[in-house]
């Protein structure tokens, strides 16, 4: 019997606004980096921070693009994925979290989020493709 379990739960803040990529006609992907502070403190009182790449697919990607912004505190859960690709003659490896869902941990009201979402949509229309 084979045993395997791949589940990750993270709490952190976005380092910048998510990017939304249209992978195909009916598939979109959002990408962002989550800054997660480590729980221990060094002798000088500072903590280290891990910067973890996160991606979301489909409708979740579109929702995350509309609602998340740089600095937003968020709970993300999903799976760790390791993949490789070739660039030139070199094989590169990427480890990222493929999110199943997320929860915003901010205290902003829904109307404030909707206002920011509308602003993002206006900006998108102004940028030529």
Describe this structure in words.
With 129 residues, the chain is of the alpha+beta class. It has one domain: Beta Barrel (OB fold (Dihydrolipoamide Acetyltransferase, E2P)). 21% of the residues lie in helices and 49% in strands. The protein is built from 2 helices and 6 strands. The chain has a 5-stranded mixed beta barrel. β5 (73-87) and β6 (90-104) form a beta hairpin. The longest helix is centred in the last third of the chain and has 17 residues, at 110-126. The mean pLDDT is 88.
Attribute tags:
129 residues, 49% strand, alpha+beta, 5-stranded mixed barrel, 6 strands
Pick out the low-confidence regions.
none
Based on the coordinates given, report the CATH architecture.
Beta Barrel
Task: Give me the Rg, rounded.
Answer: 17 Å
- Tally the helices: 2
Order of helices and strands: EEEEHEEH
Overall pLDDT metric: 88
Task: Quickly count the domains.
Answer: 1
Q: What is the rounded distance between the termini?
A: 51 Å
Report helical residue fraction: 10-25%
Task: Set down the secondary structure blueprint.
Layout: E1 8-14, E2 19-24, E3 27-37, E4 49-57, H1 58-67, E5 73-87, E6 90-104, H2 110-126
Summarize the structure.
With 129 residues, the chain is an alpha+beta fold. The protein has helices spanning 58-67, 110-126, and strands spanning 8-14, 19-24, 27-37, 49-57, 73-87, 90-104.
């Amino acid at each position: 019997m084979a045993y395997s379990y791949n589940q990750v739960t993270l709490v952190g803040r976005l380092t910048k606004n998510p990017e939304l990529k249209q992978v195909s006609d009916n598939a979109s992907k959002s990408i962002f980096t989550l800054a997660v502070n480590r729980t221990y403190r060094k002798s000088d009182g500072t903590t280290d921070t891990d910067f973890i790449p996160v991606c979301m697919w489909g409708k979740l990607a579109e929702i995350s693009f509309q609602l998340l912004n740089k600095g937003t505190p968020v709970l993300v859960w999903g799976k760790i994925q390791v993949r490789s690709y070739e660039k030139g003659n070199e094989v590169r490896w990427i480890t990222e979290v493929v999110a199943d869902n997320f929860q915003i941990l901010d205290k902003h009201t829904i109307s404030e989020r909707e206002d920011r979402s509308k602003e993002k949509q206006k900006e998108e229309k102004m940028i030529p493709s």
